[in-house]
C-alpha cells in the first residue's frame, strides 16, 4: 500500500522494473477515518488471529521476539490486505516489516504467496527471520534500508517483473516507541538514541550526538527538511 504520492513516485523510480506490469494493486490506497472504538475493535480482531502452520517449541529468545511482535498491531491491516488482494502464487514486498502484522495478515488471507520482508531495524529483522524459519517458502527476511532494497532483492534472486505488490507503512511502531532504550518514546525516560538501525552501525551518531554537536541554524535546517516544520 503506497500511501503518499512522494513515496509512490519513489517506488516507480526504484522498483518499477521489479513489479509485474499487469498488477492491478499498485495504486495509492486512500485512508479510512476510524473512530477510537473502531480502532480498538479492529485491533482486538487482529490480535486474535494467527497463521495456520506447523507448531514449534520456542526458546526464551524466540519467546521474547514473539512477545515483542505482538506489541504493535497495525490498525489498517484489513484495508491493506483488501488493497493488495493477495492471490495464489503472487509475490509481495513488505518494505516496513516491523513486527510482521501486515505480512502475517497477508499470509492468513492467502497462504500460498511469497513475501519479502524488509526492515532496517535489527529487532524487526530478527522477528522476520524467526517467522521465515517457520514458513521458509512464504517469507524471506531482508535487512536494510529502502535505498538498499533493489540490491537486496537482486541478491535474493528476485527477477524483474515478478513482484505483484509493495507495502510501505511509514513511521515508528509501538515496538520502538515502547522501548525506552531506543530513545523514541515521549512517555518513558531513556537515552536520546533514535537510530532506526539500532546498534547495527555503532559509529552512527545518535540524536544526542546531533543536538549537542550542531548549532541552532543546522538543527533548524534539519527540522525543516526532515521534520516537516514550517
From TrEMBL:
UniProt key word Transferase: yes
The Gene Ontology terms for molecular function here are: methyltransferase activity
Q: Which residues form a coiled coil?
A: none
Q: Does the keyword Methyltransferase apply?
A: yes
Q: Which GO terms describe its biological process?
A: methylation
Q: Which InterPro entries match?
A: RsmH, SAM-dep_MeTrfase_MraW_recog, SAM-dependent_MTases_sf
Q: Pfam families, alphabetically?
A: Methyltransf_5
Identify the keywords attached in UniProt to this record, alphabetized. Methyltransferase, S-adenosyl-L-methionine, Transferase
Q: Which family does it belong to?
A: Belongs to the methyltransferase superfamily. RsmH family.
- Protein name (Swiss-Prot/TrEMBL): Methyltransferase like 15
The gene name on file is Mettl15
